[in-house]
Amino acid sequence: MAKWAQLMLNESNTMTMQFLSLFHDLTLVVIILILFFVSGISLFMMTNKLISDSPIVTMMEVIWTVIPMLILLILGNPIFKYLMLMEESDPYMTFKAMGHQWYWSYEIADTEISFNSYMVPNPWLGEYRLLESDHRMILPYNKNIQTLISATDVLHCWTLPSVGVKADAVPGRLNQVFFQIMRPGVMYGQCSEICGSNHTYMPITVEAIKPEFFYNWIKEMKLEM
């Protein structure tokens, strides 16, 4: 999760988020190099009195048109790989996240398990402020998971930064995302679409555990219902 004075992105817990972090670093380096290159040429042009005011030759125009196109193609090529990783695949399990004003509800497919997840009030906190919920969504790690996302009232957005997931929750429409959590742990997110006065009080808390522990959790939830 994010920490005070953090400069980089959250620690990745999926392959797609690792790819996004690496792509972010690569793009940032390329942008900085272009900035220094263009700034150097501009400074040279402004300070050198021997620069000719005659029209630039056609070859130079071709070069500074083709090179930016090649840079964009090189940077755009990894995006296709990322889009392929997001393609529909055979999921180990499916659950639905529904956005409400101002909480989330979850339903696990092929079971009768459903529950609401509210933010833990400040007086009860022993965890992170505005990020901890009273009912965490429990998921198995190292398994392909499908998430169906929608809303019942207004626009919301189900976001888990360390997983690399950000999907709009639109009333009357189902959006889907696929991800595979690599390590056990607790991941935090929040609604990323302004949805009313309590928009900041819609935390998303996902806990990844071993598949065998996940089965035990399913059994316990069924007994409680």
From TrEMBL:
Cofactor: Cu cation
Segments passing through the bilayer: 21-44, 56-76
Major subcellular site: mitochondrion
GO biological process: ATP synthesis coupled electron transport
Domain Cytochrome oxidase subunit II copper A binding, residue spans: 90-220
Subcellular location: Mitochondrion inner membrane
Cytochrome oxidase subunit II transmembrane region profile domain mapped to chain residues: 1-90
Membrane topology: Multi-pass membrane protein
Reaction(s) this enzyme catalyzes, per UniProt: 4 Fe(II)-[cytochrome c] + O2 + 8 H(+)(in) = 4 Fe(III)-[cytochrome c] + 2 H2O + 4 H(+)(out)
Cofactor note: Binds a copper A center.
Keyword entries, A-Z: Copper, Electron transport, Magnesium, Membrane, Metal-binding, Mitochondrion, Mitochondrion inner membrane, Respiratory chain, Translocase, Transmembrane, Transmembrane helix, Transport
Any one GO molecular-function label of the UniProt entry: copper ion binding
A Pfam family that the UniProt record links to this protein: COX2
InterPro entries in alphabetical order: CcO_II (IPR045187), CcO_II-like_C (IPR002429), CcO_II_C (IPR034210), Copper_CuA (IPR001505), Cupredoxin (IPR008972), Cyt_c_oxidase_su2_TM_dom (IPR011759), Cyt_c_oxidase_su2_TM_sf (IPR036257)
GO cellular component, one term: mitochondrial inner membrane
Signal peptide coordinates: none
Purpose of the protein: Component of the cytochrome c oxidase, the last enzyme in the mitochondrial electron transport chain which drives oxidative phosphorylation. The respiratory chain contains 3 multisubunit complexes succinate dehydrogenase (complex II, CII), ubiquinol-cytochrome c oxidoreductase (cytochrome b-c1 complex, complex III, CIII) and cytochrome c oxidase (complex IV, CIV), that cooperate to transfer electrons derived from NADH and succinate to molecular oxygen, creating an electrochemical gradient over the inner membrane that drives transmembrane transport and the ATP synthase.
Family label: Belongs to the cytochrome c oxidase subunit 2 family.
Protein name per Swiss-Prot or TrEMBL: Cytochrome c oxidase subunit 2
Organism per entry: Watersipora subtorquata
Lineage, opening ranks: Eukaryota, Metazoa, Spiralia, Lophotrochozoa, Bryozoa
Gene of this entry: COX2
